[in-house]
Design a protein that fits this description.
Number of helices of chain A: 4
Shape of chain A: globular
Helix content of chain A: 25-40%
Oligomer: homodimer
Distance between the termini of chain A: 7 Å
Chain lengths: 140, 140
């Protein structure tokens, strides 16, 4: 039935995924939202316009990201990683991350494509989670 | 760009979904896991074998469930509901819920199919969340 994934197997799920479900805690309550991400082997990178998600992570930086591969109800893998939210504020670093997101997600909205070229655009918040724990389960 | 859904629109997303991402809080940290569910207009019903998810919700019953409909990166809807975890322990109620889950998810594992017939099976934990708040966002 269900089995635990090794850390290496869970990392594979994270590596091959593009969309995950971010979990954070807002005023003691859970909050879940899907995000696009890229992964460099150590950290998850993503970006967002200002809003509840950013406010939540600024207030309570402990976050998780769940990523799944579902073939069917009997064959799936799900990884869960933990990290702390950090904003990337150095313009060259922001531009670098946004460019990589644009390569991975060519269907970024026009506003986001502009932001990738102009890292000084004030609305875009670029962030990462340095992963410090990773687990996973599978049914195979 | 992104717009808020009305409560009625968010309920539509919940009604037409079958899989959601459950968020709960475990020792102050967020935890996210995909679940199958059914919805009767007021409550979300699901079931699970014992484990971290059940332990977490027993310790901290405040949960959320996020459900999405994604057509593409420019056209999607996502609903988020909140409720409190409650276990369904009356055997006839458990059997009733498990039977409905079995109709909706005919690919339940053999063990779960047996449980649907035998609500006294000790391993199956049947639960619901009575929804008390629902929000949603969309890009259209």
């Amino acid at each position: 039935m269900t089995k635990q994934l090794s850390e290496a197997e869970a990392l594979e799920v994270i590596k091959s995924g593009k969309v995950g479900h971010l979990g954070c805690v807002v005023n003691g309550e859970p909050y879940v939202v899907p995000i696009n991400y890229i992964f460099d082997g150590n950290s998850i990178y993503s970006h967002s316009l200002p809003g509840l998600k950013i406010d939540a992570m600024r207030a309570q930086p402990r976050v998780c990201l769940q990523v799944e591969e579902i073939e069917n109800n009997f064959r799936w893998r799900s990884a869960l990683l933990y990290g702390d939210y950090e904003e990337i504020r150095v313009p060259s670093d922001r531009r670098n991350v946004l460019s990589k997101l644009l390569v991975e997600f060519p269907s970024l909205t026009p506003v986001e494509s502009v932001m990738a070229k102009d890292a000084a655009a004030p609305d875009s918040i670029v962030f990462r989670f340095v992963i410090d724990r990773i687990t996973g389960v599978a049914e195979e």
